[in-house]
Amino acid sequence: MGDFLSQFGELFATYDVPGAFWVNIQLTFWAAIFSLVLGTVLALMRISPIASLQWAGTSYVNILRNTPLTVIMTFLFLAVWTQLQITLSDDFAQNFFRFGVIGLTVYHAAFVCEAIRSGVNTVPLGQAEAARAIGLSFLPAARLIILPQAFRGAIAPLGNTLIALLKNSTVVVAVSVSTEASTLMREMIESNANFIYAIFILFALGFAVLVIPVGLLTTYLSNRLAVRR
Amino acid sequence: MDHGAATTTTDPAATSAPLGPPLVELKDVNKHFGELHVLKDIDLTVRKGEVLVVVGPSGSGKSTLCRAINRLETIDSGEIRIDGVPLPEEGKALAKLRADVGMVFQAFNLFAHKTILENVTLGPVKVRRERSAAAKERALELLDRVGVKNQAGKMPAQLSGGQQQRVAIARALAMKPKVMLFDEPTSALDPEMINEVLDVMVALAKEGMTMIVVTHEMGFARKAANRVVFMADGQIVEEATPEEFFTAPKSARAKDFLSKILSH
User: Which sequence ranges are marked TM in the entry (chain A) (predicted)?
Assistant: First the structure.
């Protein structure tokens, strides 16, 4: 045990461990916001009365949800950046960071869409009928009546998506984001193979520390904000 | 209770009140649910100020008829006009028309995440673009009228079924509708709460509101209706005044139906 503690001490002294996790937190933060927006739009398309929008929303979800995240990231790196030479920033690291956020966003938006749709299913049909009966058309009815109740019913699955997003943020190595936690872990192992258990425990604990509060908070919120019927 | 209502079976004031021009017109309306023909060649005209009660066994199509009038159910053929205007198919025009048609549901359907007051002001503010202060004042008047003003700040789940249904009536009235549709408004209520809702509806009928009411409450029909329509198997089988219908039904189906609901 004392051995591990001294190894942790040495690792913390040599490497910027909090800095690496901070990159994952930043990736997660931006991707969470953008995927919430995109996922909400997709969910609206899927519950809309317009068949072509339903079809587009469903196709997006099925394609993106069934593509491995690594493939999406590699596509962004090899096809969009290398081949099409599209850049998102003149700063090299910032460019890859933005590609990372885009990859995480387009992938997790599919899951956010399905989480919101599961929330929509918790809203009784009568709510939508009452909204239509007082003269609200689809978008105002969705905005004022359906989505506010759907989000409250979707907090737990949205929390699960956020947890997956946080852990999946390590996949951005595939677009060359080289400062995040899993990259640092590989570097550490390469130079300190004798510390392998300490390194493993360090990163496992690091993610647990980030993820556990998310789970606790979403459980608390989903009880607190539940719509009483 | 308004005096006399308990002793007279039909209100002479209601039946003799001059009725206005046709407000809701259905012509040759047909609808299927898959194989099931739920509305068969329905022809029906409701005049301004008229109170129409629709009765019939379950599965007779009476709820579908009620819901078709503001297009919560689409129809396969035929025509429905409200105040002379054919029902629009979709979009803004349909929403605009629905704003003029009040609807009260069996399951109340109050907006569960909004307070009682917000339930009533939402339509006037978001659909009619009324100023929020004016809408609030009017909403409180309406809530007072249906007897739940003191509950204005509560959430729907905190109210009894009877209170919720009275709020639902206030919510519909807040839109100043031309006609009110009631789809079995007391069927989901405990017996002791039925009368508080029916009293509000009777008062509304006496004020001259045009109403189409799907209900099994024969007391309400006798007290407030100008006309009773009896439906069975998707067809209108019989139309009569409440007095005629309840004392001397003509068709065998209606006799059978009445014997079942009035036998105890």
Answer: 20-45, 66-84, 96-116, 195-221
